[in-house]
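Supplementary Note 3. Input sequence used for the single-chain structure prediction.
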Amino acid sequence: MENLYEVKPAKVIKVIKENPITNTLVLKLKDQEKFEFLAGQFMQVGIPGFGECPISISSNSKDSKKQFSLTIRTVGNLTEKLNSLKKGDLAYVRGPFGNGFPEVEGNLVIIGGGCGFIPLRTVYEEYKNKKNTKIQVFIGCKNEDTLVFKKQLPSIKQKHELNLIMEDEKLQGLSSGQGFITDLIKKKKIYKKAKVFVCGPDVMYKFVVKELLVKGINPENIYLSLEKRMHCGVGVCQHCAIGPKYVCKDGPVFPYSFLVKHGYFK
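The predicted structure, written as C-alpha cells, is reproduced below.
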C-alpha cells in the first residue's frame, strides 16, 4: 500500500528562470521510471526546516518516466528557498495528489489568469500535436514580470490561437491588447463545441464563467482548477472542503456544475 506521507528526494536537473520571481525546477526521482501523473495534479514539495507546500505539475505527463517540472512563484520563505536551488540540489516531494482534467475529444479552450497558466501548460503540451484538435489559449497577467513560459509563447501562437493580455502593458508581437482576461473573452469568438479549462485567482472565476455562458458555451464543458485552495494534500486538515469534497483530494479540478450546486459562486 502506498504511503501518502512518504517523502522522496528529487534532484534538480535543470532550472529555468521564467520571470523575476518564478522558476521552473526540472526534477528527477531515484525511481523516476515508476512515476506518473495526470494533467492538473500537484505535488507537495518542501525543504527540511522550511516546511512544504502544494505546487502544480507544469510538464507534459508523457515525459513523466524521465522527469517532471514544478513552476514555483516566490511568495514566502519556503518558495524563496525552493527558487534558490541549483542544478544538483535536492527538493523533497510527495505525490502526485488530486485528480486531473478530463480527456479532450475535440477542441480545447485554455484560460489562465495570473500564474494559472502553470497547470494548464501540462494540458496544452499533451494536446498540442493531436490531430483534429484546435486549441485556443487565453492568458491574462499583470505585466511582463509576472508572465510565465514567455519563451514558449511564440510557438503556441504559431501552432494554435494565442490570446495574451496584460493589465499594465503590451508585449510586442504577442499581446492582444491591454486590460483583463475577460476583455479578451468578450471580443473573441470562442469554440463552442470544446472543453474549456480555467485556472487563476478565485476572484476571476465568476467573471470568466459569466462571459463564457454569455457566449453560449455549454456549462457541462467548463472545468475549473481550484489549485490555490489546497493545503495538506490528503483531505485531513479539511481547510479546502467544498460541499462533500476536498479540493486537495477530490480536486483540484471540478466541473462548473458541481461548484454551482455547492454554492461556490455565491
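The helical segments are 77-82, 117-127, 153-159, 181-187, 202-214, 247-250, 256-261. The two ends are 40 Å apart (CA to CA).
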